[in-house]
Amino acid sequence: xxxxxxAVSYRILIADDEQEIxxxxxxxxxxxxxxxxxxxxxxxxxxLINTQxxxxxxxxxxxxxxxxxxxxxxxxxxxxxPIVILSARTASADKVLGLGIGxxxxxxxxFDPLEVAARVDANIRRFYKLNAKEVKEKIMxxxxxxxxxxxxxxxxxxxxxxxxxxxxxxxxxxxxxxxGRVFTKKQIYEAAWxxxxxxxxxxxxxxxxxxxxxxxxxxxxxxxxxxxxxGYKMLP
Length: 236
Known about the structure:
This protein is an alpha/beta fold. The chain has helices at residues 19-31, 42-51, 68-75, 92-100, 113-129, 132-137, 166-177, 185-192, 202-215; strands at 11-15, 35-39, 56-59, 83-87, 105-108, 140-143, 146-149, 154-157, 160-162, 183-184, 217-218, 221-222, 224-227, 231-234. It contains nine helices and 14 strands. A hairpin with a 3-residue loop joins strand 13 and strand 14. Helix 1 (19-31) packs across helix 5 (113-129), helix 2 (42-51) runs parallel beside helix 3 (68-75) and helix 7 crosses helix 8. InterPro entries: CheY-like_superfamily, OmpR/PhoB-type_DNA-bd, Sig_transdc_resp-reg_C-effctor, Sig_transdc_resp-reg_receiver, WalR-like, WH-like_DNA-bd_sf. Keywords: DNA-binding, Phosphoprotein, Transcription, Transcription regulation, Two-component regulatory system.
């Protein structure tokens, strides 16, 4: 039995439009000590991920309202939970696509439920057990009166939540992880946009301006300092 943090079972979301598959998998996973949430379409699955504590998601591709590919893309904007695709599509191109958009594993139908359970165990162990120390230490980043919640992807200042876009969150995370270190535009761009930085891009200046406007100052001092000719740093 794989137990979650604080001796609470890990919670698995099964998103599939075939209720028989949900019931079948639930039977095996519950025997291993997992708690199960289920959804019959992509819209319901997304609502559960946004409102419940989900530790791993098993997602079918062909679902109504929001298909599996679109669901994974949306989830990956703000959430890095392990995702296992369970699909009747067996072509290599489908597997490459699924893994390329952010899935961690791909299982084809028909499947062996024992294999699915073993894959779930492996992904849970890899993500939570082997990285337990790092996960525990980096649930939140704190700097002066700013708190960045890495699980919920929100910023808190003096008890008030400040809404952030995914890009703003990634930039703040990078700067707050190592305050005092100067990051170049190239480093910031590649961390936030997850793409290669080729030419000088005004997008970084725009987002820095937005972030500064949102977080304001503390005792007349800006949190983020521009280092001319080099980049930006978060003041320690």
